Amino acid sequence: MEVSKAINKIILMFGKPLILHTDNGKEFVNERISRLCDEYKIKHVRGRARCPWVQGQVERLNQSLKYMLSSTCLSENLDYKWISIIDRITSSYNSTVHSTTSFAPFRIMFGENADQSANIHYSEEELNLLFADLDSSNMDEKDDVENYMAWKWFTVSSTRTKAVQYSDAAEEKMLKKNMWKNDTSVFKIGEKVVRRIKTDKNKGTRKRYLNEHHDTRIYNVKGFSPTGMVILESEDGREIQEDSRDLASLETN
């Protein structure tokens, strides 16, 4: 209930996203979240269960927030009452420059840093008093507002464009590093492979290992994604992405 309420509050404040990307925790996979996504027509993307390497964005964010929460609780003797500092920690995270994008998440979202935003320092009542003298018939002031909005949108767009460029460069660097570390697992384009399928026969527990077997369908290696995933093409032309560690070459079997 708390998670769905928090997500709904964010949507009402900033607008709905196109995609909600989560893991398979019970907080996100339930009837309330499903109703919320249906109401706002949001596509809910969930990573594969117990495979954190295929949902790197979610796992990386969770890791950072978990470290910030635990270290703050320890330093302030809060006895791990993290709920009392979650808003302060997330605000700190959103105001910190990310090493991949070279921008703070707040700036990518709003086009400026958190300490430059007027609505952080003033209440709604104070803002109304500040802008009360704005006369819609005054063309100079109206033009100033329009020019500011145009500049604002240009700043947001250019910031996001640069962030994507920096992210692409970081992905390429990670791909090269991944290829070098796992060069024995790199397949050739056109090579025929089969997938290792992992299924869970232990419905009541997650403590046992997954049952592993090979898929009977044959795939052709078509290419590689920027994150190091192998792009496969099935015999019926369907494309999927798979981790190289979950593939076996028919040429070596």
Automatic annotation (TrEMBL):
<protein>
    <submittedName>
        <fullName>Uncharacterized protein LOC115229103</fullName>
    </submittedName>
</protein>
<dbReference type="InterPro" id="IPR012337">
    <property type="entry name" value="RNaseH-like_sf"/>
</dbReference>
<dbReference type="GO" id="GO:0015074">
    <property type="term" value="P:DNA integration"/>
</dbReference>
<feature type="domain" description="Integrase catalytic">
    <location>
        <begin position="1"/>
        <end position="113"/>
    </location>
</feature>
<dbReference type="InterPro" id="IPR050951">
    <property type="entry name" value="Retrovirus_Pol_polyprotein"/>
</dbReference>
<dbReference type="GO" id="GO:0003676">
    <property type="term" value="F:nucleic acid binding"/>
</dbReference>
<dbReference type="InterPro" id="IPR036397">
    <property type="entry name" value="RNaseH_sf"/>
</dbReference>
<dbReference type="InterPro" id="IPR001584">
    <property type="entry name" value="Integrase_cat-core"/>
</dbReference>
